[in-house]
Design a protein that fits this description.
By secondary structure, the chain is α/β, with parallel strands linked by helices. The chain has helices at about 1-25, 30-50, 55-65, 70-80, 85-90, 95-105, 105-125, 135-145, 150-160, 170-180, 185-210, 250-255, 275-285, 290-295, 300-305, 330, 360-370, 415-445, 495-500, 500-510, 520-525, and strands at about 215-220, 225-235, 260-265, 270, 310-315, 335-340, 345, 350, 375-385, 450-455, 460, 470-475, 490, 515, 530, 555, 560.
């Protein structure tokens, strides 16, 4: 009797599972998208259960049900459905990063494990069971649900368009809601879009390999040695840097260099809150609306190589996707490429692969400076792990200050999980301060001109009570300002400033310019004294009157959000 009741109840578990991602995003019954999405999903579910009689269909439905935790995770913690950006990020996520994410959400991970066990039990036990649903009831339910869709369409037309909304036809609105917001259609459509884009990506990589910048020339005839360093940060938000007014001293070493060659830029925003989107845009200088060009044109690395520099790419991250990946393809433009070997190191009771600490880039950096290749002019790109989650794993134990054992307190003084996470994040910023200062010190010891540009690919959301979700991380839709506002630093050696004083003066004058990482390409080109034919006004931070770089944002769903995102709702000291 008990076994029969369990078996009869398993299909109900399947129904509840497939509807749960949609129910998790019910924020308002007056939302027009709700009245389109839910009836459509219920109708599809009824039609699916109509086919439940066939074994193949039952196996397929339970397989789809196994994907529910991913759909729920994105909706509950990120406030968005499955998108091509999310799926691509998952495909490019290493086992180490996946394990770090699981440790960050232990309760959700435990519930997902229990749920997947139940799904497996259901898949095995229902394989040979008869169909428990009558055809007439299912078709009647599907028809009833479908009749509500026109009501949702009317509500959509009468609704007030949200900020940054670009009007579309009713048909396009319906298509967008069904394919981008409805589970499991969102996952199927996003996966289809990824597969569809693979061919275009391969073709773009081929075009990038043969791409050449027009009319490239160096503006100086000096044959002496020069070194230019580009440091790429990760998930570092500007409001957690004391250089920009944060209450904690997270940049004590860099603060001592302000006015001594270091110039912080306080008004720069990333054009995306995912690395796979933001980095290609920043390093090619293309706006979000020109994202396809960013995959077809070479980056600032390719420009430096074409201009005659010896180019290096040193990464503390792992290489994913090979030369066809959005980051790997840029790295392959360099003459010398090194992704640091990662080795297991102890973390929280496990021997796990936490990757390389950022200070490990200093050794190959020194080797690149000392390497004699017959070319004394060098460009070195350093790609760090920065503040990528899990924050505590980014910092060696001996360099933790805010999250050190002695600072956590005990009993009533013990910090909350959110407080500990914030402490770990601030430690990662403090550690970045240490790494950048070491790079600058090495450059300052050279006897020839050198300069450094640092920027973070995007920021990070960090526990703001005004956000409706988990409130830490990045890749949310829509993006918040602290996921986009990033720190940018320029440093000039004394010999560089003596040789090119107008550039240093222009940089200081532009320190508070409101612009985006779209200015990185032109800025580094001017830093190297390389000129090329531009089809737009120079956006360089070293220009006397720079053109504005686009403030549009490329969303994780592939849409372009126009400038004017919601203002920051939390200050730097909200905890």
């Amino acid at each position: 009797m008990l076994k029969r009741k369990i078996n009869d109840g398993l299909p109900l578990l399947l129904i509840a599972a497939l509807l749960s991602p949609s129910l998790a995003t019910l924020t308002s019954w007056s939302s027009p998208s709700t009245w389109i999405r839910l009836p459509a999903e219920c109708s599809l579910l009824c039609l699916a259960l109509y086919a439940y009689r066939w074994r193949f269909c039952r196996a397929f439905f339970w397989l789809v049900a196994a994907l529910v935790p991913l759909g729920l995770f994105c909706r509950v913690f990120y406030g968005s459905s499955i998108t091509t950006g999310v799926l691509t990020s998952i495909e490019l996520t290493s086992s180490r990063e996946a394990w770090e994410m699981v440790r960050g959400y232990p309760s959700f991970a435990c519930l997902a494990a229990i749920y997947l066990t139940a799904v497996g039990f259901g898949a095995v036990n229902t394989y040979s069971l008869p169909n428990p649903f009558t055809n007439r009831r299912l078709l009647r339910a599907a028809l009833s649900c479908s009749l509500i869709v026109p009501c949702g369409a009317v509500m959509w037309l009468r609704a007030t368009p949200p900020a940054n909304y670009r009007p579309m036809t009713l048909a396009k609105n319906l298509k967008y809601i069904l394919l981008n917001e409805s589970f499991p259609l969102d996952m199927a459509y996003s996966e289809y879009a990824i597969f569809r884009g693979q061919r275009a990506l391969r073709e773009a990589v081929g075009r990038r390999a043969s791409f050449a910048f027009p009319e490239v020339k160096r503006l100086t005839s000096d044959t002496g040695p020069e070194v230019y360093v580009l440091i790429i940060g990760e998930s570092s938000r500007r409001e957690s840097w004391s250089l920009f007014g944060y209450g904690r001293k997270t940049n004590p070493q860099l603060a001592s260099l302000v006015g001594k060659g270091l110039i912080p830029f306080s008004g720069i925003r990333s054009n995306a809150n995912l690395t796979i989107y933001s980095l290609p845009l920043a390093l090619t200088g293309n706006a979000p609306a020109e994202s396809r060009r960013a995959s077809e044109e070479k980056s600032i690395v390719g420009l430096a190589k074409q201009a005659g520099f010896d180019t290096y790419w040193i990464s503390a991250q792992e290489m994913f996707g090979g030369a066809a990946g959005p980051v790997g393809s840029i790295a392959e433009e360099a003459s010398h490429v090194q992704f640091l070997d990662v080795s297991p190191r102890k973390g929280r009771g496990f021997e796990i692969d936490n990757g390389a600490y950022d200070e490990q880039v200093l050794r190959p950096f020194k080797e690149a400076l000392a390497q004699e290749t017959g070319n004394t002019k060098k460009v070195i790109v350093i790609h760090t792990m920065g503040s990528h989650y899990e924050y505590l794993s980014r910092v060696p134990a001996e360099r933790r200050v805010f999250n050190s054992v002695g600072s956590r307190g005990t009993g009533t003084e013990a910090k909350s999980p959110a407080g500990e996470k914030l402490d770990a994040y601030d430690d990662s910023i403090l550690y970045t301060d240490y790494v950048i200062k070491n790079v600058i010190d090495i450059l300052a010891g050279l006897r020839y001109p050198s300069a450094m540009l640092y920027f973070s690919d995007h920021g990070e959301r960090m526990y703001c009570e005004a956000y409706p979700h988990e409130s830490f991380g990045h890749g949310f839709l829509p993006p918040s300002e602290d996921e986009l506002d990033v720190p940018v630093l320029l440093w000039f050696s004394k010999s560089y400033e003596r040789r090119y004083p107008p550039l240093a003066e222009a940089a200081r004058a532009n320190a508070h310019l409101k612009t985006s990482l779209g200015s990185v390409f032109d800025t580094f080109a001017d830093l190297m004294r390389v000129d090329l034919r531009r089809t737009r006004r120079n956006q360089s931070l070293l220009s006397q009157s720079p053109g504005p770089a686009s403030l549009d944002v490329f969303g994780v769903d592939g849409t372009v959000l126009v400038k004017g995102l919601p203002q920051r709702v939390c200050g730097p000291d909200h905890l």
